[in-house]
Amino acid sequence: MKKRLLIHILSLGVAGFLILLPPSALAQEGGAADEAGAALSACSSGSGGGFLGLPTWYKYLDNTELIGGRCSPVVNFPDDITKILLAIFEIIIRVGGLAAVAFVIWGAFQYQTSQGDPEKTKNARSTIVNSLIGIAITVSAVAIVNLIGRSLG
User: Fold this and answer.
1) What's the CA gap between 8 and 129, in Å, rounded?
2) What secondary structure letter does DSSP report for 115?
3) Could you read off the pLDDT of 59-104 as tens digits, one per residue?
4) Against a cut of 0.85, is the pTM above it?
5) CB within 8 A of 98, min separation 6: which ones?
6) How many Å separate Cα 24 from the centre of its chain?
7) Which of 57, 67, 90, 95 is a Cys-bridge partner for 72, taking CB atoms 3.0 to 4.6 Å apart?
8) CA torsion sign, 24 to 30 to 34 to 35?
């Protein structure tokens, strides 16, 4: 029974992590591509490509250009502040989602090591349930932020 529960919890954790990754991180490259073309596509507006699949702070900006092989966003100060803040907010939400996945794994570890103690089992279950609720909230919040960001852009 405990092994089944652990397998289910770990699979939910992996699924939660995969939900937080951008689609470009899961796609396989099909052959040799031109480096300049790949850099331009990575620099296009709306592309993620940050650390751990987190979006870049300039994700929702309309103008980015390639300078010296690196993306350089073109910021129009008063107009683009909301877009930058949305991208930063999305980064924070996704980090919260990664933390929730870590808490699912921690709760599974607590459950496995509870050795039948009802109090420890209860605490482990509440950790798992609360972190799954956190994952659901972060996935919903990321979807809402993406919807708002795309409507602004």
Assistant:
1) 13
2) T
3) 777 777 777 777 777 777 787 888 888 888 888 988 998 999 999 9
4) no
5) 17, 20, 52
6) 12
7) 67
8) positive
